[in-house]
Amino acid sequence: MQPPEGQPLELRGTYREIVRPRRLVYTWQWTSGVPDPHESVVTVEFEDLGSTTRVTVVHAELNDESPIDPYEYGWRSGLDKLAIYVAAPPYKEGELHASR
User: Fold this and answer.
1) Structural domain count of the chain
2) Residue range(s) defining the domain that contains residue 65
3) Neighbour count for residue 41 (Cβ, 10 Å)
4) What is the mean pLDDT of the chain?
5) Which residues lie below 8 Å from residue 45, measured CB to CB, with a gap of 6+?
6) Which CATH number does the domain housing residue 73 bear?
7) Which has fewest Cβ within 10 Å: 7, 11, 27, 51?
8) How far apart are CA 12 and CA 68, in angstroms?
9) Whole-model pTM over 0.70
10) Please, which residues have CB within 8 angstroms of residue 37's CB and are 6 or more apart in sequence?
């Protein structure tokens, strides 16, 4: 991850559960950029609502000393970007878009 300002943040994790297309569970552990070596668990669930999909993210087992606000901001920002991405019209085959 690369915040708008500052050094890159690196993490690692292990998939614990994959239930296609409904559920994904994995561990989350910072390896650089955040002074918290504690391993936490992320659960992402996808619920088909017909024309839309509800995405629920639960980031659990956080270190008791870790502030929650940066995690909430990061997940909200990531989900907002995902919503924009999936709402974009699909590209036609052979069509390439690039910008600076």
Assistant:
1) 1
2) 10-87
3) 15
4) 86
5) 22, 23, 24, 55, 56, 58
6) 3.30.530.20
7) 51
8) 19
9) yes
10) 29, 30
